[in-house]
Amino acid sequence: MKIPVLGKMRGKFRAGRFRNIADFCSPIMKKSTKSNERKKNLSTAGKVTEGKTAATRKPGKTGATGIIKKTDTAERPVRTGKTGATGIIRETGKNGMEDMPSPGDKPKGSVIDKGLVLKPLSRNGVAKKGGGRRRVPVILITNDDGINAPGIRNLVEAVKGLGKIVVVAPDKPQSGMGHAITIGNPLRLHPMPHLFDDVEAWQCSGTPVDCVKLAVDKVLRRKPDICLSGINHGANHSINVIYSGTMSAAVEAAIESIPSVGFSILDYSVEADFTAARKYVRIIVEEVLAHPLDKHLILNVNFPAVPESLIKGLKVCRQAYAKYEEDFIERHDPNSKKYYWLTGKFVNFDKGRDTDVWALEHNYVSVVPVQFDMTNYVLKSKLEKTWKS
């Protein structure tokens, strides 16, 4: 109410027009009632939509004016075909691999099934706090001692948290297989969902090189950011790199333009202490992921079999010139037929202080960059000058 109205009422009260306070308030209450009724009628009229009133219409979304908005969820497109962070393919074709999940399946217990949230990575590949998205590195792990060997389990533990780990390893020991591949027999892959905690794992019936080939072609949609092989039980320094299934798997990955590292410890025991190895594995992998050098990178890393407190650090060095002086022990089976056992001893002919053998003998972790290009460029240059067509 406006003040002038009150002023008029006050004047009439003083002039004796009102006998009491009730007579004074009566005109005010009548005006207020008429105003409220007018507002109510206008509001009710505005809510009538498509023959329905506010009292009879069905529940639904309303706008600022009270009009019901139509919402048809069937018209909204549904996004399908999304995969996990690494785009893992579950399909491996119909080549005798039983019980293989289809491409759209999410295996129970996998990181994909739990809803992986991608976050920015720090220099060492660990997810940063805060918003944003960045591709999580994919780490392929294999070995030649078999998927149940202690070495590969320690390798998995060493790099957890640095990326999405996928293990594809032989179903049995394959030491000394070198770069052998399977040609005359079918290859089989079998999932091993409970072998490693929260890590996708597959066992392969083939060689270490077969494992890498199948992983790249049938298990992973895109190439991994790094391939790790090991941790091998026994040395792979010097000439051993030629025979090693561990290193051949790493070499095969590099051929596929995947930076790779092979790890070995100078201890053949199944009870070997991997404490120091796990520490330096993580240091090396963090460095390779943070500062990529070459897509054909291959590192041959060996750990001395000593306690962590005695290791002096990493030493980048060259491959020593050494070999095995071999001997074959001759024996006879129950049918008097001869058979042979390969034996021998490792002999180092290289006295240099910059070799992997020297580094390991002095409690360093040896790191030797190797390559699959076996061209002798020094000799090539000489032959080009002397051997003329």
Q: What can you see in these coordinates?
A:
The strands form two sheets. The protein has a nine-stranded mixed beta sheet with strand order 3-4-2-1-5-6-7-11-8, sandwiched between helices. Strands 9-10 form a two-stranded antiparallel sheet. 28% of the residues lie in helices and 19% in strands. It has helices spanning 3-14, 21-46, 150-159, 208-219, 240-243, 245-255, 275-290, 356-361, 377-386; strands at residues 138-142, 164-170, 189-191, 200-204, 226-233, 260-265, 298-303, 313-316, 322-332, 338-348, 364-369. It is of the alpha/beta class and 389 residues long. The chain has a domain at 138-381: Survival protein SurE-like phosphatase/nucleotidase (Stationary-phase Survival Protein Sure Homolog, Chain: A, 3-Layer(aba) Sandwich). Helix 3 packs across helix 7 (275-290). The N and C termini lie far apart (116 Å). It has nine helices and eleven strands. Residues 1-22 and 45-129 have low confidence and may be disordered.
Number of strands: 11
Query: Helical stretch count?
Result: 9
Helical fraction equals 25-40%
CATH topology call of the domain at 138-381: Stationary-phase Survival Protein Sure Homolog, Chain: A
pLDDT averaged over residues: 78
The major β-sheet equals:
9 strands, mixed
CATH class of the domain at 138-381: Alpha Beta
Instruction: Tell me the Rg in angstroms.
Output: 38 Å
Strand content: 15-25%
CATH architecture of the domain at 138-381: 3-Layer(aba) Sandwich
Strand order of the largest sheet: 3-4-2-1-5-6-7-11-8
Sequence of secondary-structure elements: HHEHEEEHEHHEHEEEEHEH
Coarse morphology: globular
End-to-end distance, in Å? 116 Å
Low-confidence stretches: 1-22, 45-129
Within CATH, the superfamily of the domain at 138-381 carries the name: Survival protein SurE-like phosphatase/nucleotidase
Helix/strand-derived category reads alpha/beta
